[in-house]
Every structure is written in C-alpha cells, then in structure tokens.
Amino acid sequence: ALNQAAIDVLETRIQAGTDDSRVYLLQADTYLRIGLPLMAQERYEEAVTYAQAAGQQELQAESHWGLGDVAAGQTEYADAIEHLQAAQMLYQDLGDLEQVEDLQTRIDRLSIEVLPS
Question: Which of 11, 76, 109, 115 is the most buried (most CB within 10 A)?
Fold first, then answer.
C-alpha cells in the first residue's frame, strides 16, 4: 500500500509536467522494488534524460545503475554492462571510488554471463 501511495504521488508530479529527475528516479526505484521492471525502465530512461539536461552526474549514475539492474534482470547482460559502465564512469568523475568498486564487481559477475561457452 505504501509503495502504491508513493507511485501515485510521484505520478501526480510527473503528470503535472515536472522535469525533476529525482521524481522519475524515485518512481523507477519503486517500480523495480515491486517487480515492474518495464515500467521502471521507462522512468529510469526519463530520469537519465532530465539528469543529463540538468548536469546532475550523480542522478545520471543512479539512473544508469537502475537501467543496468533492469537489463540484468531480463538477462540482457550486454545492455546491463553498458549501463553499469556508464554509471561507473560518472561515479569515477565524481570521485566516488566505493561506488566504482561496487559497480566493477557487478560488471565482472555479468561479464561471465556474456562470455561464449
């Protein structure tokens, strides 16, 4: 019920025409958490667009990370790696080495999935 309430509040903001990438990112995270990856993917993509326009590198990184998680969940490992690497580069630019290392671990795990047998 709380997740649905959050989605509804965020959707009201989106329908009102917000360009605040955080609204899209929060809604995407909620959709992913409740098992609606395609809806999450759409919102993550919008979050990336708005974050890029606003020059918000951290929100871009978080959105790419979310897109990577969605793609990995759909066994689209090459797409997942691409998004995780984009997030990793943004975190590198921000100097957040902990996130860079966490992403590298995920990328390494996914890379095993795309290697030919």
Answer: 76
Cα 57 to chain centroid, rounded: 12
Cα dihedral sign, 107-96-43-48: negative
Give per-residue pLDDT as tens, 33-86.
999 999 999 999 999 999 999 999 999 999 999 999 999 999 999 999 999 999
Cα first-last separation, the chain: 44
Report yes or no: 17 and 54 within 8 Å, Cβ to Cβ. no
* Each residue's pLDDT tens digit, 91-100: 999 999 999 9
Query: Cα separation of 39 and 78, whole Å?
Result: 20
C-alpha count within 13 angstroms, C-beta hemisphere, residue 53: 10
Q: d(Cα 37, Cα 57) in Å, to the nearest integer? A: 23
